[in-house]
């Protein structure tokens, strides 16, 4: 999974991710492995993000979810994008509990707008968990 911090849309990524190495410069993205062997996905790494003091309604975290088929005989299997999820930070700035995000298949322009969200093609959770 890749996590990015954006303002308005995915093309406006912000240097906000602290790298794993001390002293390195901020990056536009961070990645982590996700364990999906159970009903609830679990991230393997903690990701630190440098957020602005004032968050606008357009500030959000964009999660890009990949699948890597480890059963293939390829030396280096290629990741395939499964979907995307967006977490608006102005409404979830004080996260003290778990948040469940819908996963949409395609990253379309203005994906944060309510009128666009209604028309997005979402993955079905029941179908994903039975595969």
What does this structure look like?
With 131 residues, the chain is mainly beta. It has one domain (1-131). It contains two helices and six strands. Strands 2-1-5-6 form a four-stranded antiparallel beta sheet, with no helix packed on it. The chain has a two-stranded antiparallel ribbon with strand order 3-4. It is globular. Mean pLDDT is 78; it is low at 126-131.
Any idea what the shape is? globular
Helix content: under 10%
Give the strand content: 15-25%
The number of helical segments is 2
Class per helix and strand makeup: mainly beta
* Strand order in the largest sheet: 2-1-5-6
The radius of gyration computed from the alpha-carbon positions, rounded to a whole number of angstroms, is 16 Å
Our count of domains comes out at: 1
Family: Belongs to the DOCK family.
GO biological process, one term: small GTPase-mediated signal transduction
Protein name: Guanine nucleotide exchange factor SPIKE 1-like isoform X2
Domain C2 DOCK-type: 1-131
Q: Quick summary of this structure?
A:
The protein is mainly beta. It has helices at residues 114-117, 125-130, and strands spanning 2-7, 29-31, 34-35, 42-43, 59-67, 80-88. It holds the Pfam family DOCK-C2.
Name the descriptors.
single chain, 131 residues, mainly beta, two-stranded antiparallel ribbon, 2 helices, 6 strands, 8% helix, globular, C2_domain_sf, Guanine nucleotide exchange factor SPIKE 1-like isoform X2, DOCK, C2_DOCK-type_domain
